[in-house]
């Protein structure tokens, strides 16, 4: 079990539990956990000025919200929340940013992620920054929706990256 976690369950465990019981994670549950991940990354980046560099489904651990917290609009439903763990690759952006520059605009070169977790910039050998964490968030949402790991491919004609799998027709495509 992780410090601060009540369950020790990761998003991978959530997906596997749903697979055993009823099949895929319902889209509404995926939306909920994605909103929590967005909230946590926003806080990590904006308030902490930290780049995690290893955001992935097994680094999101289920936990409960503190009891008695009066922030009703920001609290998790029924106490269920997520916590991002494993800051072994994280970067303190204020320490590496040039004086007077916005730490969130810091750029890095090279690959520090597993091949399947590299953001588009990293795959193309270009400088990367917060986009690495957001790709990890997208990969985490993807596994909730599809039940397997994200697979992206670059369209050679347009140069844009896209998912290899398509969204189901009844999903909230505009949201994703």
Describe this structure in words.
By secondary structure, the chain is an alpha+beta fold. Helices cover about 30% and strands about 10% of the residues. The protein has five helices and six strands. A two-stranded antiparallel ribbon has the order 1-4. A hairpin with a 6-residue loop joins strand 5 and strand 6 (about 160-165). The two termini are about 30 Å apart.
Per-chain topology:
Layout: H1 11-21, H2 27-47, E1 50-51, E2 60-64, E3 80-84, E4 91-92, H3 93-96, H4 120-123, H5 131-146, E5 152-154, E6 161-163
Antiparallel strand pairs: 1-4, 2-3, 5-6
Helix pairs in contact: 2-5
List its salient traits.
alpha+beta, 11% strand, two-stranded antiparallel ribbon, 176 residues
Radius of gyration: 17 Å
- Main β sheet profile: 2 strands, antiparallel
Number of helices: 5
Strand content: 5-15%
Order of helices and strands: HHEEEEHHHEE
Order the strands across the largest sheet as they lie in space.
1-4
Low-confidence blocks of residues: none
Number of strands: 6
- Helix/strand/pairing category: alpha+beta
For the record, give the distance between the C-alpha atoms at the N and C termini, rounded to a whole number: 31 Å
User: Overall mean pLDDT score?
Assistant: 88
Q: Which bin fits the share of residues in helices?
A: 25-40%
Q: What's the shape? A: globular
